[in-house]
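Re: beginner question about structure tokens

> Can someone show what the tokenized structure looks like for a real chain? I only ever see the sequence side.

Sure, here's an example I had lying around. Input first:
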Amino acid sequence: MLNVGSPEKALAAARLPQDGVGLARLEFSIASHIGQHPLYLLKVGKDDVFVERLVSQISRIAGVFYPTAGKERAP
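And the corresponding structure tokens:
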């Protein structure tokens, strides 16, 4: 299992011998891609902005680690 801290580096990490993501360090994505504190966005009624941007970052990580159909996985 890998710890992934950056969606930009997820593709390179996925090429390493691994069995998936054990921990996604999302605080880096929040700080660098969302740009505003989550509590501030909640306070001003823009929690949907936070959720949309976070979903985008998580999707980038998940997309490169999603198992290919028919691919054998190690036991």
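Each token stands for a local structural state, so reading them left to right follows the chain. Strands lie at 2-4, 21-24.
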